[in-house]
Write a structure and sequence with these properties.
single chain; alpha+beta; seven-stranded mixed β-sheet; two-stranded antiparallel ribbon; 6 helices; globular
Length: 210
């Protein structure tokens, strides 16, 4: 099972030693769009507290999820899913989409739970944070995946399994394969198979981005 205190320690160490040098602020095209004439691309995140897709707040930090879709993504954000807090005056700023967490694929559910465990609030996932039937928005986001992931505070990699229902091994007891230790060097355990080889030969390793 994953060691949550270790994950938090890694995150804090990154902040202390690297700061914003390895995590640039999201480029200006992704600033929330307040007026149609601003020409900026709307950028949404999942609020894991309220289970909603919302416009990213200013000065926000978010976690990103890199995973494999496969055939297990029953819900993809579309224009028909968008509601507005001000129905008589719809705008990007007042837009939101409600999520039913239990109906989402297991990997997405697990990622939302990890964000909560890390005491973060916002999560970016491609199928839920990009309006899939908006050709302009979809194209712009696909062409900027590198910037979206580089601007994330951290990225959760769901490299296990063949689709979005694989989940995140180690999040719950007895859900993670542990490699047998075959030796040690200076007290560091040596596994039989290099973990990076598993990534290179996984379905995730052959995906289109990240």
């Amino acid at each position: 099972q994953i060691d949550l205190p270790v994950l938090k320690k890694w995150r804090e160490r990154c902040k202390e030693e690297h700061g914003y040098h390895c995590k640039p602020l999201l480029p200006s095209p992704y600033e929330p769009k307040h007026r149609p004439d601003e020409g900026s691309l709307p950028f949404r995140v999942i609020d894991v507290v309220d289970d909603r897709v919302i416009p990213a707040p200013r000065n926000w930090q978010y976690v990103a999820l890199s995973y494999v879709w496969g055939g297990a993504v029953p819900f993809r954000l579309k224009r028909a899913d968008i509601s507005y807090t001000q129905a008589n005056c719809p705008s990007f700023e007042s837009s939101y989409a409600s999520l039913h967490r239990k109906k989402l694929p297991r990997t997405i559910q697990d990622a939302m739970f990890v964000v909560e465990l890390l005491e973060e609030r916002y999560l970016w996932i491609d199928c839920l944070c990009i309006v899939q039937d908006d050709a302009e928005e979809l194209k712009a986001n696909i062409h900027s995946m590198d910037r979206i992931f580089s601007a994330a505070q951290l990225t959760i990699v769901g490299a296990s399994g063949h689709d979005a229902n694989a989940g995140l091994p180690g999040l719950y007891p007895k859900t993670r394969y542990v490699q047998p230790i075959t030796g040690s060097v200076d007290g560091i355990g040596i596994a039989q198979i290099e973990p990076t080889l598993r990534l290179e030969h996984s379905v995730w390793g052959f995906r289109g981005w990240t």
